[in-house]
Specification:
single chain, mainly alpha, 3 helices
Length: 70
């Protein structure tokens, strides 16, 4: 699904960026350009970051790996 229409950024791209270490809207703005135009996507991007990080932490806990959210 498209999250940032202005830049054509999808939820999949945001999730990949979060797994790559972009764990804030500011980091996503720098990395992908999310929320750099009209800003309407910022809240949804933040929700996707939080969801992705919580899933990553659960998966890491099950595999014994440490996942740092910061």
């Amino acid at each position: 699904m498209y999250v940032c229409i202005c830049k054509g950024i999808t939820d999949r791209q945001i999730k990949e960026a979060v797994y790559g270490g972009s764990t804030s809207v500011k980091a996503l703005r720098h990395h992908l350009g999310v929320s750099s135009q009209c800003g309407r996507c910022a809240e949804l991007a933040k929700e996707i970051i939080e969801e992705t990080m919580s899933v990553g932490m659960i998966t890491s806990a099950n595999t014994g790996l440490l996942y740092s959210a910061s």
